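Reader question, answered in our methods column.
A reader sent in the components of a multi-part assembly and asked whether the whole thing could be modeled at once rather than chain by chain. We filled in our standard form and ran it. Here is what they sent:
COMPLEX SIZE: two components
ENTRIES:
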Amino acid sequence: MGKTTYKRLKGSQSFRQRLLLSTLSSTPIIIDEIRADDMIPGLLRHEMSLLRLFETVSDDCVVEVNETGTRLKYKPGIIMGGKNLVHNCALTRSMGYFLEPLLLLGLFGKKPLSIRLKGVTDDAKDPSVDTFRNASLHILKRFGVPSEGLDLKIEARGVAPEGGGEVLLTVPNVQTLTAVQWVEEGMVKRIRGWTFSARVSSDFEHSMRFAARGIFNNLLPDVHIFNDHKSGPHAGKSPGYGITLVAETTAGCHISADTTVSCGRTDETGEVDDEKQERKPAEDTGVEIASWLLQEIEKGGVVDSTHQGLLFILCALCQQDVSKVRVGTLSPYGVETLRNLKEFLGVTFSFRPDPDTATVILTCVGSGLVNLSRKLS
Amino acid sequence: PLKEKGRKKNLNLMQIVYGAPASSATALTNENHENSDDEDFFKPKGEHSKNLGGGLDAGHVNSEDCSKFVNYGNLKNWKEKEVCEDIRDRFTTGDWSKAALRNKNS
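And here is the structure of the entire assembly that came back:
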């Protein structure tokens, strides 16, 4: 090969997808001007932590960051996977941030991945670990990922700011992903939910469950929300509570909504995240998340807005065959994903709006990514 | 409001997602026009302010990396029975034949 040519990118946007797609497509990248004009310039703690996670999972990757952190040079290595790996996630983002790219990375490793992540399990910004367990993993199965060896165990909860949670993720390897024809949403047949409370009274959970169930009363009798009160070492280091709701349809779609309430983090400037300053009653949180879920159902599509990115990446990574999927209105993150997929894999989707349902049907031909390391072994 | 936007015939998603072909001036104007119409729909990505030739990397280069959708705006009051009726047929408790119509266009 000789001299390495780097793809040049700018800014901190799509950091995870850029690293992921760079690795999967073996495209070295240089990212410049990462928050160059910000008060705190350069890569943030969770981004550095993510880089270390990529190093943990792969062999021979090269990460170079300049002194201010505004420039990253990344040369992907071979995705190894492996057992008994451990990663301490930076506490500035929750595990959802790390799990999203890690899931896909794990699929294309040399060996099945089994990794223990420590840190913040749930917050309001990223999908909860319950969402991963009960929605995201099901989406992978659609694309031919075997359910055996695909699991996320929540061993201890931990919320912001101190974390202390632990999950165990296992991901099997695949040779290729199978293209899907997935346009039928089906009808919602049941709603399942999971609440948790850590270092606070389980009353919060009860209020959220009761309020959320009340919202579904008019629509569906088959609603069950499980509770998960943690204390002692399984409750992490900070107080908080959260709720995840998943609607399951007759066509096997899983539509999710979740949130977590905990103390605000202080960012590096010492200011508390403004979004967390007002605290509403737990009932209101239950009503809110139940309403989010219903609005997602109303929007339509085979996945919720949050999972559009994952869905599109999976379609683009498939064998060279046509995938066809239906989503509700395109989410901003979904659009960003589509752009990154074109940039790295050269996969362009075509769109057909369906005016009767206000949904969009997307089709693409997969890039035909093959797990080379697995073939050799 | 989202529904009405989805129904708009001239909503060219190809252009909104991938940008105007070959940065031609007319296409760009067209795109800007589209965006002003869909302001609240596409807002979080940041105004789509694409420079000529700037391609995909123009715009909000340091926007936050977050998949979770939380921008639901004003929530409907789902406690009301009438509000629930709008999505009744999306549930197994609704009208199955009406629900099946959703797939006729796929």
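What stands out: Helices of chain B lie at 2-7, 13-18, 25-37, 39-42, 81-85, 96-100. Chain B touches chain A through 54 residues (CB under 8 Å).
Send us your own complexes using the same form.
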